Amino acid sequence: MRHGMAEAEAEIARREGSERLRRPGRHEALEVLMVAALAKALPEGRDLARLFDPGAITLVRPLLPGCEDAIGKAFSGRLLRHLRDRAGGAEKDAADPKIRIVSFRGDQSPRDRASEIRLHRDKLRDAVGIGRPVLLVTTERDLRWGDLAALFGPEVRLPRLSADLLLEVLSRTHPEDFDAEALRLPEAEALARLAPIAIRAAFMAPTAEAVAERLAAVAKPADAPSLTLADVRGQPEPVRILTRMVADLGRWRGGGLAWSEVSASALFFGPPGTGKSMAAEATAGSAGVPFIATSYSACQKMGHQGDMLAELHARVDEAIARAPSVFFIDELDSFLARSDDGNSARYQRGVVNGLLEELSRLSRAEGVLVFGATNHPADIDPAVIRSGRFDLKLAMALPDAAGLEDLLATGLARIDPRPRIEAGAIAALARRLLGCSGADVAALLRDAASRARAAGRAITASDLTAAAERLAPPLDAEIDRRVALHEVGHLLVAHLLDRPAPRLVRLTARGGFVAGATATLQTLDTAEAELATLMGGRAAEVLVYGAPSSGAGEGRDSDLASATRLALKLEVSWRLTDGDGGLFWQDAERGDLLGTDPGLRARIEARLCAAHATALDLLGRHLPHLHRIAAVLLRERDLDAARITTLLAEVHKGPPEPEETSQVIPFPLLPQEPTPDGAA
């Protein structure tokens, strides 16, 4: 037996001696590349000796996704013995580290993935339980190692693929014609996108020059979108922030900024058609990086929950592998808040948890800008959009008049570099299109261009007007005036009750709206003032026309619906008044509360009537201002915060003078509308 062992040891020594003299084959180029990368990444001295400590676990991070097996082969017994000799302090008789490779297929279901993680964890526990050191090769970041986590030592992170590393390998695989100065290898960023299989194939070329040419051919520039942030019009504030993100990404790519200092994620929210998807794609175009996009429905169509999450995982893998890149997920509002209610609660909880895991992976991935989009941010599970997953929240609002002018002018220039349409006509059309989105403007321009082609001529102002008639037919003049009075009613009541001034009042072909700040904290006084403000539009119509229109109460987002919900919260959730004497909390969103509690319904009705009476009284004493500001709104269509402040400066807020009485006059005995003066 001893004689046989001696012969075996002699044979091993002979083979190792021949290996030292053997030139590596071209098919081994990837393994040699990993050895060269390890030589740059492995520590020295005591830190190197820790790799051989009994039961120690060392994480080895690959320089390219997909090269884990090549790293495992690079850690040959000969290399490990060489490292032990260099470490010095390592015990000579200690067992060589066990190499464990953890990687997952992109199409693997979450259940299979979890099962495989448990298997790896058990094998890892078996190895360290007998004192075997482990080299764990993986790109995965969160494998939940539990009680094993305390055994993990310093991480060995292989450097990014570089020309220097490739030249070092080429000098060994193709020494005959190797000339470092004559070889032209791709830039580092292009090399970082190379797949391991592409590197293997390139090194099979017969000469070093042919290898370099193959590498240049497969390391193509990132397929960045042609769209850039310069193409995103009508959204100046989001574009400013996105431009800053692109600049920081460039600084990181140049080595001048740590990734931890980069704002790398943002949530776009706003009405449909405002350019949320376009902004994400344009950011990738401006940065010159790949754009990887998916959505709830794109993932769901792959099948059941496991298949859906596997598809999401694969798209995240793609974004990480192609970094620097932009990852975009649309329809985030489809990932509803997790709850225990309903038959689908368990399914939805699993889907949201899967999304959270992928967002966590993305937050740890350097070089990936992450964007999400939603029309309804309130519907999303709060854990999805918290800071750390989506740091910035970018409102994509419907464009104002200036933004619409910009969209029209830019779009016309694309159709005809020298459009023969006066600037005044474009400005008038922009005011008419208030309330329309960027997508609406694009549709209008396509319609106008089609009309011009059918007529065999260049596009004209009449083509634009005809297209606008279809897209945004003007309201009847009297309806338009009623809407203006309604919106100014809200504005004036808010001002007279010292509520925060709105930032915008707009009149559109589809109606009007007032945009203001939402209160984060309510008292009884502020809630009652807000109720009166919500009733201000209805009160204005009653004062001028003798009765309200359906606009005050049509739909769940109407003034009356919002006031009812606010009054319910005041009574049953916030408990800001004694009410029925109780302090127990009730959910104000329950639809059956008013139907099952007659006393509550009576209290809500009383509050709404009191708020309406307050609004009537305030507006009745300021009818001239109501008409004056409504006339300005009818003319200008779009009032910003500065213009609103100017218009309200003449409105006296204090208590009425003793002789002042309310001007509530029953319809139709109405005072004549004052003629708007030039100062308004």
Characterize the structure shown.
By secondary structure, the chain is of the alpha/beta class. Helices cover 50% and strands 8% of the residues. A five-stranded parallel β-sheet has the order 6-7-8-5-9, sandwiched between helices. A four-stranded parallel β-sheet has the order 2-3-1-4, sandwiched between helices. It has a three-stranded antiparallel β-sheet with strand order 11-10-12. β2, α6 and β3 (134-138) form a beta-alpha-beta unit. α18 (438-455) packs across α19. The protein is elongated, with a radius of gyration of 34 Å. The model is unreliable at 1-5 and 657-680 (pLDDT under 50).
Features of the shown structure:
4-stranded parallel β-sheet; 27 helices; elongated; 12 strands; 680 residues; disordered N terminus; disordered C terminus; alpha/beta; single chain; 8% strand; 5-stranded parallel β-sheet
